[in-house]
Amino acid sequence: MQPAAAPLERSTDIATTVVTMMRQLGVMGLPRNYEIFYEALAGSNPELSLSVIALSNRPTQDELDLIGRKFFAQNHGRGIVEHARDVLAHELEEVATLLRAERSHVEKYGKILDETSGGLKNRSALSRELLEKIVSAVSNATSSTIERGRYVANALTEKTAELETVKSKLEEYKRLADTDPLTHVWNRRAFDTEIARIYSSNKGILFNALILADIDRFKDINDRFGHPAGDKVIKSIANIFHGSAVPGMFVARTGGEEFAIIVEGVSEDYTFEIAERFRLLIEQSRFQIGQDMECGPVTISMGICMASEATGPEDLYTKADSALYRSKIDGRNRVTRHSTMGGRSGKNWMLYKQD
Question: Helix H segments across the chain?
Fold first, then answer.
């Protein structure tokens, strides 16, 4: 049993190294970037590994996109979408051709029936021989139409399955593109879409709330224990958020140690209760960062704002952000409602970002 576990352990080590390296190089946590560094470190493609080694200390996204297009042409983000679009267009054209041919066949069958019906009206001119020919023609036409119908039905079933496969691939890419590779919760891209959706209806404005959260003194954790330990803390907190989520809750990692939670169908008091529950769970948790090693107590500061208090997505984020800042300067490890701040929203994030 032991040898079978070795590849999994190695895969986990590589994944941790990949995330750490991307953070140190300032690389965005996009699925395609993760794929590049993972394959480079795994050593499966020496040329790819050399291309990654040749990158500067702060590689640009354009440089990474060039590597992605070169080594992952079919799996690169834009390539996936374009390829899937071409496949969809081809499959739909084949379906349209099939249906046009079927329509033509049915029209011919209808014409045969009309002509036969017209011939049968003049019964005096019908001989036994002619009647047999008519019956034979109708029988052959009917058999052909039934057989053709079966063929079309089977062909459409196959095409439907093929289209579903393409659709699944597109949905999988969208899921990856909207997922944070470290924590597997939603990322900033998905969050931006979700917060904009709030203001697409009056119901969303009246019954949605935003909670912003930031790990207290996270820089100290990285400085004392290293970035891999910090990543483990981030993952553990994401698991707490995701594992304790209530229905209608959207959890995203929006920055290094920052999270955003959108709660649907709640009052401000209940939103505060949710945030407080999260805060206490994190405060009371033990964060394992190595074998028999803990990083000590970890706390989190939070700010909340109801969607009805803001004029739009940016305003909602700014007000929740101001409430989060108030939690930080009031001593950390607390939840602040924007509605209680009385307009005190001036801030200097550097006051605690340097802690």
Answer: 2-25, 31-42, 46-53, 61-71, 77-121, 128-177, 188-198, 202-206, 218-225, 227-243, 268-284, 313-329, 350-353
| pLDDT tens digit sequence for 201-251 | 887 788 899 999 999 999 999 889 988 899 999 999 999 999 888 888 999
pLDDT in tens, 307-320: 999 999 999 999 99
Q: Which residue among the candidates 35, 39, 257, 309 is catalytic per the annotation?
A: 257
* 264 tagged catalytic: no
What residue segments make up the domains of the chain, in order of their start? 2-72, 78-177, 188-353
The residue among 189 and 163 whose pLDDT is bigger is 189
Q: Please, are residues 331 and 351 in contact by the beta-carbon 8 Å criterion? A: no
Question: How far apart are the C-alpha atoms of 33 and 26, rounded to whole Å?
Answer: 11
Q: Is 331 helix (H, G, I), strand (E, B) or coil?
A: coil
Of residues 248, 244, 261, the one with CA closest to residue 207: 248
pLDDT, one tens digit per residue, over 109-118 is 677 666 666 6
CATH topology of domain 188-353: Alpha-Beta Plaits (3.30.70)
CA–CA gap between residue 238 and residue 230 (Å, rounded)? 12
User: pTM, whole model, 2 decimals?
Assistant: 0.56
Residue carrying structure tokens 């990322």: 187
Residue 304 has phi, psi (to 5 degrees) of -125, 150
Strand partners, 262: 210, 250
Taking the C-alpha atoms of residue 309 and residue 206, their distance in angstroms, rounded to an integer, is 9
Q: What is the pLDDT of residues 143-164, one digit of tens each?
A: 777 777 777 667 677 767 666 7
Spatial CB neighbours of 78, under 8 Å, sequence gap ≥ 6? none
| Closest to 32 measured CA to CA, from 5, 2, 70, 64 | 64
